[in-house]
């Protein structure tokens, strides 16, 4: 127990029947309840009741999936495809960028004391084009760095760096 009289991290157990059990309140809860814990910034951890494995990320992804299915999604299909493409060599770069971007937006929202959705929407309408342009420039620079590095080390030598660019001897092969 902490000084406040309760455990610092709330433990949620997920049972094989897919039910979630809050050990602090000794009651079953839903993904909506867990979403409220996130919104209230209450620390919690979800574990598989049988194995003890930490499955918090999996539960959070389920909450995001549900939220994306309801109403207007945050992630377009193209954005999700882009994220999937980043898994691999640039995964850490994207993860760091997204984490810092979201943290910055939260900090700005907190500092500005944005209370109404209208004020938040106005902020996003003015900032999103700027953020999108910065991300586009960053991705373009990353792409060029990757292509230059690949060419420098001769990786994938059978392919040209720029689509449609002819390499020496291409005409002779026809």
Automatic annotation (TrEMBL):
Entry-linked Pfam families: PHB_acc (PF05233), PHB_acc_N (PF07879)
Gene Ontology process terms (BP): regulation of DNA-templated transcription
All copies of domain PHB accumulation regulatory, residue ranges: 75-111
InterPro entries according to UniProt: PHA_DNA-bd_N, PHA_reg_PhaR, PHB_accumulat
Domain PHA accumulation regulator DNA-binding N-terminal: 11-70
NCBIfam families on file: PHA_reg_PhaR (TIGR01848)
Name assigned to this protein: Polyhydroxyalkanoate synthesis repressor PhaR
């Amino acid at each position: 127990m902490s000084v406040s009289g309760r455990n610092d991290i709330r433990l949620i157990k997920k049972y094989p029947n897919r039910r979630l059990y809050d050990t602090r309140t000794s009651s079953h809860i839903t993904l909506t309840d867990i979403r409220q814990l996130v919104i209230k910034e209450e620390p919690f951890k979800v574990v598989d009741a049988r194995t003890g494995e930490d499955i918090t990320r999996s539960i959070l992804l389920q909450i995001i999936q549900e939220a994306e299915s309801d109403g207007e999604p945050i992630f377009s299909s193209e954005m999700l495809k882009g994220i999937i493409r980043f898994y691999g060599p640039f995964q850490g770069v994207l993860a760091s960028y997204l984490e810092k971007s979201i943290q910055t937006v939260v900090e700005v929202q907190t500092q500005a004391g944005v209370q109404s959705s209208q004020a938040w929407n106005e902020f996003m309408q003015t900032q999103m084009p700027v953020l999108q342009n910065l991300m586009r420039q960053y991705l373009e620079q990353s792409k060029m760095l990757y292509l230059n590095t690949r060419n420098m080390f001769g990786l994938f030598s059978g392919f040209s760096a720029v689509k449609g660019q002819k390499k020496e001897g291409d005409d002779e092969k026809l």
